[in-house]
Design a protein that fits this description.
- This protein has 1514 residues and is α/β, with parallel strands linked by helices.
- Helix content is 44%, strand content 8%.
- The chain has 63 helices and 25 strands.
- Strands 2, 3, 4, 7, 8, 9, 10 and 11 form an 8-stranded mixed β-sheet that branches. Strands 1-6-5 form a 3-stranded mixed β-sheet. It has a 3-stranded antiparallel β-sheet with strand order 12-13-14, covered by helices on one side.
- Helix 28 packs parallel to helix 31 and helix 45 runs parallel beside helix 49.
- The chain is globular and about 135 Å long.
Amino acid sequence: MDASANANGMVLAQILAQLESLQLSQAALQSKIDALTTPTSPMSSRIATPPKRTLGLPIPGRSDSPSTLVPSASAFPPSSLSTSPPIHSMLQQTSAIASNVATLDVAGAEKDREKRLYPQRVIITTYPDQSGIKPVPLQWGAPSPEERGPVVCSRNPTSIKLRNAIGAHSGSYSIYRALAIAIGTLDPMHKPNYTMTEPPVLIPPQPSWSDPKKIVSFDPWGHMAAQAFREQLDAGLDVRPSIAITKAHIKLSELDHATATGALKVDGKIVLESLPLKDEHGNPMAGSPGIELVTSKAAVEPVWHLPGVAERFGISEGLLRRALFEDTGGMYPELITRPDIKVFLPPIGGLTAYIFGPPAYLSDETKELTVRVHDECNGSDVFGSDICTCKPYLVFAIEEAVRCAQRGGVGLVVYFRKEGRALGEVTKYLVYNLRKRGGDRADTYFKSTELIAGVKDMRFQALMPDVLHWLGIKKIHNMVSMSDMKYNAIVESGIPILKRYDIPDHLIPPDSRVEIDAKIAAGYFTSGKKITQEELRSTVAASGKSIWVGHARLILPRKLSSTTSSHNESSVKIIGGASRVQYEYRLGGEQHQIRGSLEKDYGSALTRAVGRAWNGRGCLWWDGAETRLTSKGWADGRERYFKEATALLRALDAISKSPTSTDAPHHLQLLTAVFSSKEVDSVGIASFLIGRGFYSDLGSAIQRIPLNNKSNPSIPLVATLVTLPFAVFPITSAVYLTSFVDLLWHIFTVPLLPNRFPLASLTELSKQLPFSSLHIISPAIFTDPTVSLTSRVHLLANLVAFVNPRLAKLSATAFSAFLQGIAAILESLPPQALDPPSKGVQETSWAMQDDSDMSDVEVAPKPAQIRTPPMISPPLDARTVSRLQSLVSPAQIDALLTLTSKQPSTRPSLFRVLLSLCTAWPSKKDKVLSSLVFPQMGSLLIKELWRGWVRPSPLGKDVRQALEIARDQRCLEVWTPLLLLVDMYTHALLTMGDDEFFSIATRSNAPRNPLTLDELTAFSKQLMNITFPLYWNEDQLNVKEDCIPGTTIRWEPVREKLTKCLKAIHTRDSRRKFTHKDHWLMTSHIDIQSFCEAAIFEEQKLDRTSSRSLSKRQMAYISPRLGVLNNIPFAIPFSARVEIFRDFVSADMTRLDLSDPFARPKFHCVVRRGQIAKDGYDGLNSLGAQLKGRIQITFVDQFGEEERGIDGGGVFKEFLTSLSKEAFDTDRGLWLFTDQQELYPNPHAYAREPHQLNWYRFIGRVLGKALYEGILIDVAFATFFMAKWLGRQSYLDDLASLDPELYRGLIYLKHYDGNPEDLALNFTVTTDDFGVQNTINLIPDGTNIPVTRENRMQYIYLVSNYKLNAQIRLQSDAFFDGLSDIIDPKWLRMFNQQELQILVGGTEDPVDVDDLRSNTIYGGVYDESHPTIGAFWRVVRSLDQPQRCALLRFVTSCSRPPLLGFKELNPKFSIRDAGSDAARLPTASTCVNLLKSEQALRRKLLQAINSGAGFDLS
């Protein structure tokens, strides 16, 4: 023992001595390096001592040994480093340093350069506890870039002690950067200028960005670094983007060929025609220039989060760090010395993502997505190798991606830099040589690589799905890849793949057949054949594969189906048989051979089942000439039948094709016995059957049994069989999920499923269906685009029929999943798909879609002519329609509200269903909303949506961040409650009177507005902050085509919903102000002056031939400013809009050459003083739009004499004002007064006669002419009539001004506590035309439809609509036709009713004497300094406001001043002398509104203005 101990001690002492010597050598070398790399000074001879560290084993006799460059194991956690580095590695480092020292002595000049570049001493590594080391905080997986922190890996002086990442930017290109610095072409302190480098397309944050395990191989915030970390950059921190996004065109000759052959279509959006090529002389070359593809692309550099990468590969972080350090030549010692730094920038290539179509669609599960993940193959991708399929597969994938985008989806090709399976191109070429010289056979394909590289593939796809999660992808519809490694990596990361593509045979180069066959044999996906060992050896297709089993030779077909990967096992046969085929085998020595062969072609489930079930020899028989199993073996012993799964497939096929045959019940009993038997592996056999069309065959069988044949013996057996798999498999198994999905798509899509079973079977089936497990089904399953519309509608109807009775028994998770599924189906349906197709005219929404962008004016409800969607075939049965309509019944909605109120977690799912119903079924929207709004619970629901969801959400809180927040998927759950609230509140306002809105009712129990006025103020501001950017930033959001990220809800209808609600609230605020002064304005976010100038310019650029018919929606597409003015004009100050209006008119005058006020009039009209209206109509009505031009008016007095005077504008103005007085006189029968003395068209039948309608058109033109000329007309119109000028409807709140008694009656009905049927009302109104009573049906057959509690809101709305809209529709249309001849309708849409009234008749503001004086023209002997003028203005100032208004009426015919002041008065106010007759009164002349002033000014002025006389007073 002592000898042994002594020997060990000697060895230990020797090792320690060597270590001490090595440490001293390193210290000496370090001092030499310092001497060479630092300026000469008295201190330069001192040897810099590194931070003190121990090696873990103390050196005897020394307490402070010089540290080495390698730390001890004790410096790290056990998981990071288990042993000290070996001595030989230290010696190698020492040798390397010595070599470097020798190199430093080469040239003095180079030393000087090096000193300038690197003035500090060499820092080989750093340590966590080293002085000054303070890494910038970095929290991987934080929800925002600010919380996450920047990635800093630079070693420049400002960043080296702040580094929180190991490595260098730019991956392998960092070596070239180092070289550029060394040779002097790059300043190492160069600071990039990132101005204007931000991404042109948005990749918004996704939930996966804040999951530290979803993305571990690059920085998800890398493209935002320059913007998100601007403060750190400005402070000098070296932060660099690791992702860059741009837009570009792709041009490949193969794509030109695809277009020429018709495989790709030029659409002008994604596929563009290229510009012609030019020859050396600059002339276009002959021939087609080909095409190019529009793409958005993102370049991504690797940034590894080491803990996440290690976990992804299933190894420890310590092992990963050690391997990266050791096997990169020790390039990055901080991998060992800095365990506190968790981020590493590896020196490898990155990736590029090419996106075809809208990038926002990538995160939208409802949009079809085609993906190709392609690993770099330079020899093929660039130079077209003949031994590889990479280039053809890449081009094929690009074509598929483009075709997907052209179908309305999006395509993605991700290009990874992993040359030669990540083995490198040198290794790849060596393998090529070996393959070609050694015989290039598929069976040795991978072995050739292993001989050279030691491994067949180093791409390791575990990190590959990160880019998919970064883009927000949740489901891939089409995967253009055969790789099993890529498929497994993506699916295991949580992204399902619905369909896989392999490369078409015609694209495989002949010499590439070896590669393809070898990959298929190794497990790559193929939709066709399986490759045999014989084929691998020969690379020549064979007819089949032979397996010798006992005494029989079994031939298993190589290619069984061209459309599915499942096998048609019924084609299995034994050589030597004639018409009867025997398939037999026995276990024994051949068992492993059989198992391996079957497993490869038929799957492991069948192989395990057969292997466990058979204990001896058994046979199965069937007649090869027939399509059914024989019953021979049934009587002899059925056990043998369910010991072979291929025979069961045959039985299943027979059931599918002939479910009513006499053998079908026997086959069903056989299958039932297999699923229930304990003697065989029912799990294995069931898995095999389910994977090979079990539910598809059963669905076909159910459909083939006639509906009226419920007594068929097969039906109860089928009902039992469809639920048996759920008793066999645990809920956590993949087969359980597959069975559930197949049950939905193959059984529940059968039309009238509940009607196909007898009551007993239906009851038992309902009990056994696995709906308590609905939560395992992803809502995305219900939106499979490959499933027909008809199937989705039947699925919806059957789910409602089976699940509704069990809703109360479902758990919260299952209930929520059911609601999510229903919503997903509804969202996948086109509008009106759920309406019965047999009717020509369908039920339509009873609430008017006012402000609809389908037209500029829509004044009455019109039944929608709905065409049957062509995809539904055959038409829906009435029983199916009845089940669907139960979704919108008040009882069903009330039940759902009650159930979800008890399970709050299900509430968001219910909101989604309700919103989907309104969208997918427009004709039922009002029924749904009425069921939500008008019961007592409706008020509570509105409050819940506002207070619990919308108010706390970030949506609309800051208009400056509105775009970013709107596109942030973290706000996804708020959009649905917001839109539902908007729909509900807009609907509530239709029948909400002002007393209820403002909560001014005197009764304590009177209904009140669900939202307080303060809440409405906040709500409308939130809506405004969302809506304004949707118009102002129309192009950035692509409102016309794109959806809210993560939903199927398009921005366009969202914008319309929000706009409609905003207008409804603004209308109430305009009538009675409850918001603060500038509440609606967006002036703090735009420059009003430039806005006005740009709006005028854009309006002038519109095509005059078509612009008048443009809808508000179209205006928004054309111009953001015109979109704002036509849809939410209240965002711009009223005065600014009036100026824009006048500028529009002025530009129109210039265009028509009408701007010269002294130009010769084009038309002349003689008007008799007593017949102004009649003569004006006769002389001017035929002019139409030409009434815009200058009109000369000649008055004829009562004696038939023409009045003298030069018309400078005053004569025509007198004509207009006089004509207006006569035309709007209620005694003429065209107009009536409300109680507020406001005019509206007479609803009497007399007023709808053609001649009277022509008068309305003429009066409309006259009013338009006044607006055009800026002449004020002293007339007030009812707001519900002026709404027609704007294409808007009027509702119950307007009825109070027209018929207060009817209004009070409808309010009484709305809140009536009893049974409304007791009031004996029906859906009619009665009119009185000259004593004749007429009954008008408000809806078809309204006489026989009583008003009930459920439909009373519809009645209230329709009565209001009839009174306010329908009965004056023809008159209003005619008036608006005439008005539109003069005034462009889109100019009027810049105002609301109250503002239009001001535009027509002037403001109610007091007369501003100073403004009037500063805009007065003097004539004759008068000027501003004349004593008479001074006296005149002193008199005017002494007048009170009524007297000033009388003066204004005397000289302008209107008592109200112009809105923008007297500078807008046309013609201008003028004063001139009229001689020396002191007895004359002041007169208003028919020339240029001349006011003649004389002595006794005040007395005579008051006498004149109060006399009521016209211009002839003297």
